[in-house]
Amino acid sequence: MADIQLTNQPHRSAKARHPQRPARTRGERITRTLILASFLMIVIAPTAVWAWYLWARAQDQYVSTVSFSVRKEESDPTLNLLGGLTQLTGSTSASDPDILYDFLHSQDIVATINADLDLVSRFSRFHEIDPVFSYDASGSLEDLTDYWREQVDVDYDSSSKLITLSVMAFSPEDARDIAQAAFDESSRTINRLSDIARDDATRFSRGELQKAQERLTRARQEMTSFRMRTQIVDPEADLAGQMEVLSGLQSQLVEAMVAQDTLRETAREDDPRVAQGQRRINAIQAQIAAERAKFGESDQGPNGESYAQLVAEYEELATDLEFAETTYRAAQASYESALAEGQRQSRYLAAHIAPRTAESSVLPDRPMLVLKAFGMLLLGWGVLLLCYYSIRERR
């Protein structure tokens, strides 16, 4: 009897555990159903809605591309010497493409092109049908700039200094016109940069030339005032004339003294010619003393000035005038050289890919957008599922 009870005891425990299996199965079924429902609601349904929008509402967009580089015009001095010809070389400024890259993303170009082409109407013509990819016409300039940065792709190769501009619009003509306008505005900007660089290169030389010209004018005016005050064009020439007069008087004095000595040897002491000769000698000596006094400190020159003072003042003025003329010629040559260099190295844009009218639309890339949306939703759903199981295990 005891053996019968022992053999029936496992059967009773199995029967006791058997009613719990349907409860666990029902819970797992509910969980699986909820997981499947969440997958359909979070992943499949939004992906289907997004696919419907892309194929039913999203408008086709066309792309126009322009690619250009900043060039600089230079001349070969060898060719200039041989034939007076100039050669265009392809040197590229290192900083200008960086400036243009930043300019193509700025509000300045957006405002300028909007004023010329009315970007708002071109970008918002399908806003009622396609509010996702089109622009809201009620937006501000900042909103238009943000939309511009989405529709205009600027690719800059820092090694080759090439800029490629891809413009997306809702019609081929709009894309081509906007790309051409962006290129034209970039060309005007680089021309302004070239003008600024030319002004910077010549501003210092122009200032030095003006200073040298003013100094030369002042030196010439001081020289003219000196000549008008002294009534002497060249004191050195006038002094040379005075030296000739003094030399002539000294020659006359020597001749008179020789004649006087000869007369004294042949004539008597009371001969009137001896007294007359002595008076002539005295007169010549007095005249020589007077001429020599003009070169000293006494006021014997024109207008009560000594020739020494006049010559010293004239030499100072002549030195200032010569230095001013030399400085002016050097400043003028430097200015002309800077001006020629600035004109020779003028910048311009060279487009090796011109904007063209697209024949077919390539955007939006509907299959790729659907795959991206599905992948992101699936990833989000997977994260939520992991969080659910983590919380369930902790309980």
TrEMBL record:
Polar residues biased stretches: 1-11
Keywords: Coiled coil, Membrane, Transmembrane, Transmembrane helix
Cellular component, GO annotation: plasma membrane
GO molecular function, one term: protein tyrosine kinase activity
Coiled-coil residue windows: 202-229, 307-341
Top-level taxon of the source organism: Bacteria
Record's keyword annotation contains Ribosomal protein: no
Annotated spans, Disordered: 1-25
Transmembrane spans: 34-55, 369-391
Transmembrane helix as UniProt keyword: yes
Bias (Basic residues): 12-24
Entry protein name: Capsular polysaccharide transport system permease protein
Organism per entry: Paracoccus isoporae
Organism lineage: Bacteria, Pseudomonadati, Pseudomonadota, Alphaproteobacteria, Rhodobacterales
